[in-house]
């Protein structure tokens, strides 16, 4: 009879895990390997504390929440496009059509729908907010910023205050772009040094909360727990409503989770965010930069290795994929039956979240 490798033994059961169990994956592994349980800081206290402080994080970063299928968005385009083209559409019909086009990858068509809505029904917050998001996906961050600012001028606290974090995210990306383009002369600091010095999105948000002082300032960064939790809520909200596995959002979330001392941060969850981001970016330099952030967080855990981390990530994503397949099967059935797919989705999946 062959001896079981502890990881193999663990994986025999992992397919049956629910999300709370996934959160404890590394704890189980540490307990099963002699000696590792004493060195590994992925323990019950650490994980329980991180989960209690940031309960929405791992499910969101892994896609374990109700999200529409591509078939749903194609169905909604068929429902809404005739209304818009006939001139009989309400404001919400324009928004629905544009968002579904965007979700299907037709970002310019989505922009065109919003511009048609602006011409017919000018000055609406939803129009400007959607345009800000759509332009981010075209890569035109300057235009995206201007639309988001217009949305905020109408409703500063829309989406439970999440809009300002989208603006700050775009500003952060523009700052990064400008700094990266300027680091070309001999003697300049390296891009890696720049990212280390500016401490990522968490530092950027903290600077905005403090009044917007420069990233090169020697002024100490003050970032309260309430401010950080609000920022985490803003980023996870964007992940929920846009793309949970967007590498920019994953890195921004990791920065917020990793900020602070070992007693205050959530290094384990941050390392999962950075790992997820590293698997989604293009280019070897970006992958290396993000993996360096993964390794830095792992090093603070004294015993957590890259293989273990990848196992937890894979199983978390499998849970998210299983959830998405379940939703897709329901939506395909509702479409085939000629039902109101939006209403049935809200009743089955969003009702249970209230």
Proportion of strand residues = under 5%
Beta strands, count: 0
Task: Give the overall pLDDT as a whole number.
Answer: 80
Radius of gyration of CA atoms, rounded to a whole number: 22 Å
Structural classification: mainly alpha
What is the 3D form? globular
Which bin fits the share of residues in helices? over 70%
Order of helices and strands: HHHHHHHHHHHHHHHHHHHHH
SSE topology sketch:
Elements (H helix, E strand, L loop, with lengths): L5 H9 L4 H5 L1 H8 L3 H4 L4 H10 L3 H5 L8 H17 L4 H13 L3 H14 L4 H14 L2 H14 L3 H4 L1 H20 L8 H8 L1 H10 L15 H17 L5 H12 L8 H12 L5 H16 L6 H31 L4 H10 L4
Give a structural overview.
The chain is mainly alpha-helical. The chain has a domain at 22-62 and 200-319. Helix content is 71%, strand content 0%. It has helices spanning 6-14, 19-23, 25-32, 36-39, 44-53, 57-61, 70-86, 91-103, 107-120, 125-138, 141-154, 158-161, 163-182, 191-198, 200-209, 225-241, 247-258, 267-278, 284-299, 306-336, 341-350. Helix 8 (91-103) packs antiparallel against helix 9 (107-120), helix 16 runs antiparallel to helix 17 and helix 18 runs antiparallel to helix 19. It is globular and about 60 Å long. The model is unreliable at 1-48 (pLDDT under 50).
């Amino acid at each position: 009879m062959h001896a079981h490798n502890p990881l193999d033994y663990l994986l025999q059961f992992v397919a049956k895990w629910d999300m709370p169990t996934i959160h404890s994956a590394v704890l189980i592994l540490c307990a099963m390997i002699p000696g590792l349980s004493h060195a590994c800081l992925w323990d019950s206290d650490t994980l329980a504390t991180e989960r209690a402080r940031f309960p929405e994080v791992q499910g969101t970063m892994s896609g374990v929440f109700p999200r529409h299928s591509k078939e749903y968005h194609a169905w909604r385009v068929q429902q809404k496009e005739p209304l818009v083209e006939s001139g009989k559409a309400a404001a919400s019909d324009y928004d629905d059509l544009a968002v579904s086009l965007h979700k299907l990858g037709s970002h310019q068509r989505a922009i065109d729908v919003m511009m048609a809505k602006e011409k017919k029904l000018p000055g609406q917050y939803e129009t400007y907010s959607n345009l800000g998001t759509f332009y981010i996906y075209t890569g035109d961050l300057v235009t995206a910023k201007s639309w988001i600012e217009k949305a905020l001028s109408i409703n500063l606290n829309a989406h439970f205050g999440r809009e300002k974090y989208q603006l700050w995210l775009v500003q952060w990306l523009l700052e990064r772009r400008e700094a990266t383009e300027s680091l070309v002369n001999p003697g300049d600091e390296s891009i890696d040094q720049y990212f280390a010095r500016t401490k990522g999105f968490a530092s950027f948000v903290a600077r905005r909360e403090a009044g917007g002082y420069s990233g090169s300032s020697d002024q100490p960064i003050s970032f309260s727990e309430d401010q950080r939790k609000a920022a985490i809520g803003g980023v996870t909200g964007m992940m929920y409503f846009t793309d949970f596995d967007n590498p920019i959002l994953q890195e921004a979330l990791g920065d917020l989770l990793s900020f602070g001392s070992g007693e205050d941060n959530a290094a384990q969850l941050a390392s999962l965010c950075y790992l997820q981001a590293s698997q989604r970016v293009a280019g070897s330099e970006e992958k290396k930069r993000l993996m360096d952030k993964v390794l830095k967080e792992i090093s603070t855990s004294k015993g957590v290795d890259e293989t273990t981390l990848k196992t937890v990530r894979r199983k978390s994503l499998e849970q998210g994929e299983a959830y998405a397949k379940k939703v897709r099967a329901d939506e395909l059935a509702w479409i085939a039956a000629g039902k109101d797919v939006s209403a049935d989705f809200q009743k089955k999946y969003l009702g249970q979240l209230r």
